Amino acid sequence: QRAFTRSADRLVEMLLLLTTALVLMLAGSAALIARSVADPVRRLADASRRIAGGDYAMRLASSSRDEMGALVTDFNRMAEALANQRADLIQGRDYIEALLRHATTGVVSADAAGRVVTINPAAEALLSGPDGPPRRGELLQGALRRGTARKALAEALSHPPASGSSPLEVDLAGIDGALRLRVVRVPLPDPAGGEAGSLVLLDDVTSLMK
User: Fold this and answer.
1) CA 155/CA 166 separation, integer angstroms
2) How far apart are alpha carbons 101 and 90 in whole angstroms?
3) Which residue of 117, 123, 133, 143 has the lowest C-beta tally within 10 Å?
4) By C-alpha distance, which of 193, 108, 105 is closest to 157?
């Protein structure tokens, strides 16, 4: 009976040791699997944050051919597409800015609140008063109402343009005498159907009128 009891105790001890070893092996395997999954996910998250911060050259290297490798490949394609789109936007912006800088027509854009967003050199020259032309971030109406020379233009722009209306002609008091401007105000719609701002086009037609 004692021999049987000792054998049973040894068997129980062996089972306990085997169970413990199996649990340790499973825990180690789970840790390795979790690390193999968590590390690529962490690298993807870090790379996403870098792209969101403006690092469009960020790419990830992957040597695996599983789902995570496919995800990394798709991420790199997305990053490449974003970089190309950003380059196209910058090129288009630079082209438009070059056109506006050299255009003889004055161009002023304002946001929905009426604040100047952009103003090209031709518009600055046409709208310059004793305190200079309207500045970016300034209310266009407020800038035009300073002094008396540009109040007529401010009054003309204070009324919403009628659909299909013809250009306005406004007389201003220039440095070298009267100045006549042909003015077109174009509302800029937003996706919700409202008005995101407006575009004001100015042409000096003084010589033509004379």
Assistant:
1) 17
2) 16
3) 117
4) 108
Does the pTM surpass 0.70? The reply is no
Nearest to 197 by CA among 166, 167, 162, 160: 160
What does residue 69 show for φ and ψ, rounded to 5 degrees?
-65, -40
> pLDDT digit of tens for each residue in the chain (210 aa)?
666 566 666 766 777 777 777 777 776 666 666 566 667 777 888 888 888 888 888 888 776 677 777 888 888 888 888 889 988 988 888 888 888 888 889 999 999 888 999 999 999 988 887 778 889 999 998 888 887 778 888 888 887 665 555 688 888 876 566 788 889 888 888 877 777 888 899 998 888 777
Provide the phi-psi class of 197: left if phi over 0, else alpha when psi is between -120 and 50, else beta: left
In the structure, how many helices (H) and strands (E) does the chain have? 6, 5
Amino acid identity of residue 163, one-letter, is: S
Q: Give the pair of three-digit tokens for residue 147.
A: 């002094």
Q: What distance in Å separates the CA atoms of residue 71 and residue 59, rounded to the nearest whole number?
A: 12
The H or E element spanning position 201 is: strand 195-204
Provide the β-strand partners of residue 170: 181
What tens digit of pLDDT does each residue of 105-120 get? 999 999 988 899 999 9
